Amino acid sequence: MARAGLKWGVRRLAEEAGIGIATLVRIESLGDGVPHARATTLAAIEDALERAGVQLIPADQHGGVGVRLRGQS
C-alpha cells in the first residue's frame, strides 16, 4: 500500500532500503501475515518509506494500521 502510494516498484523500494529484491518480494508475499525477516531489514524498509514521505499509522482503539503520504489529512 505504501509502495503503491509512492508509485514505486519493488526494485525502487529495495534499492532505497538497501536490501535485496528477493528479500522484499518474500516479505511482501505474506500479505497481512507477520513477516519472517530481521528487525534491521524491517527497519530499513520503514526508514526508506518515511524518508520518501510515508507516515506509518499504528493500530489503536479507533482502527487498524494504515499509511498516509505526508501532506495528506
SSE inventory with pairings:
Layout: H1 2-6, H2 10-17, H3 21-28, H4 39-51, E1 54-57, E2 66-69
Antiparallel strand pairs: 1-2
Helix pairs in contact: 2-3, 2-4
Description:
The chain has 73 residues and is mainly alpha-helical. It has one domain (2-69): 434 Repressor (Amino-terminal Domain), CATH 1.10.260. Helix content is 47%, strand content 11%. A hairpin with an 8-residue loop joins β1 and β2 (66-69). The two termini are 17 Å apart.
Summarize the structure.
The protein has 73 residues and is mostly helical. Helices cover 47% and strands 11% of the residues. The chain has helices at 2-6, 10-17, 21-28, 39-51; strands at 54-57, 66-69.
Low-confidence stretches: none
Individual helix count:
4
What does the average pLDDT come to? 89
Structurally, the number of domains stands at 1
Structural class: mainly alpha
Strand arrangement, major sheet: 1-2
Label the overall shape: globular
Strand content: 5-15%
CATH class: Mainly Alpha
The run of helices and strands is: HHHHEE
Main sheet characteristics: 2 strands, antiparallel
Using DSSP, what is the number of strands?
A: 2
Helix content: 40-55%
Terminus-to-terminus distance? 17 Å
CATH superfamily: lambda repressor-like DNA-binding domains
CATH domain fold name = 434 Repressor (Amino-terminal Domain)
Per CATH, which architecture? Orthogonal Bundle
- Radius of gyration over alpha carbons? 12 Å
